[in-house]
UniProtKB/TrEMBL annotation:
Annotated GO biological process: methylation; rRNA processing
MF-aspect GO terms: methyltransferase activity
Taxonomic superkingdom: Bacteria
Ranges of residues in domain Tetrapyrrole methylase: 81-220
One Pfam match: TP_methylase
This protein's name: SAM-dependent methyltransferase
Length: 241
């Protein structure tokens, strides 16, 4: 009787949160070691993924890399095929465009399929803007919720913000959310209009970058000193104590 070949593993490979700075300052050696023995990758953008691999391990031969692109245009019917190398005994690396794959990232769908197929998932340590913002906010690290993107329509967005404010007070639960970077200034404007003056707001922008800004103040205090957040990756956290 033929014994089935062992399956490869799916490695979740964090990447830096921005382009500036030395990758070795924010990434452990375990990621470099993983890149050394992995040739198959699932990535959001092939160009930036190759640039990252070259930066972290210059000796890696680029022609040996086999990259599958997973983004908002990828059909769900294609997802399962990305893990075929694992079924053939080869290891696969999953990378996000920034931070940790599978968290606020389309890679979560691939991880789900890996579990269904009995493929071992190996998460490696790296920067998460969500956790780093929470760590530095001074808010409730015992109970918090990440809500992703808010509704686009202004009325629905304002209602969502007021609901988060109420949840934070009723449950003592900090509420995190994000916006597309080029809309951040408009988002901040909406936040300051919707929330009560005494509600606390943490703005965490450009985490790990030279321009990093992480401050927690009341809404009333922020109205006196409004930062420019245009095109700056940002996490917003609100809590009404």
């Amino acid at each position: 009787m033929n014994t089935p070949s062992p399956k490869g593993k799916l490695y979740l490979l964090p990447v830096p949160l921005g382009e500036e700075g030395d990758t070795k300052d924010v990434l452990p050696q375990a990621i470099e070691r993983a890149v050394d023995f992995i040739d198959h990758y699932i990535v959001e953008n092939e160009k930036t993924a190759r640039r990252f691999i070259k930066a972290i391990l210059p000796t890696k031969k680029q022609p040996d890399l086999k990259l599958s692109v997973l983004n908002k245009h990828t059909k769900p019917s294609e997802h399962s095929g990305f893990l075929q190398p694992c079924m053939e005994g080869k290891n696969v690396g999953l990378m996000s465009e920034a931070g940790c794959p599978g968290v606020a990232d389309p890679g979560a769908a691939i991880v789900k399929i890996a579990h269904e197929k009995g493929i071992q998932v190996v998460p490696l340590v790296g920067p998460s803007s969500i956790l780093m913002a929470m760590m530095a906010s001074g808010m409730n690290g015992q109970s918090f919720a990440f809500n992703g993107y808010l509704p686009i329509e202004k009325g629905e967005k304002r209602a969502a913000l007021k609901n988060f404010e109420k949840l934070s007070q009723d449950k003592s639960q900090s509420q995190l959310f994000i916006e597309t970077p080029f809309r951040n200034n408009k988002m901040l404007e909406e936040v300051l209009l919707a929330l009560q003056p005494t509600t606390h707001l943490c703005i965490a922008a450009d985490i790990t970058q030279p321009t990093e800004l992480i401050k927690t103040k009341t809404v009333a205090q922020w109205k006196k000193e409004i930062p420019d957040l245009h095109n700056r990756p940002c996490i917003f956290i609100i809590h009404k104590f």
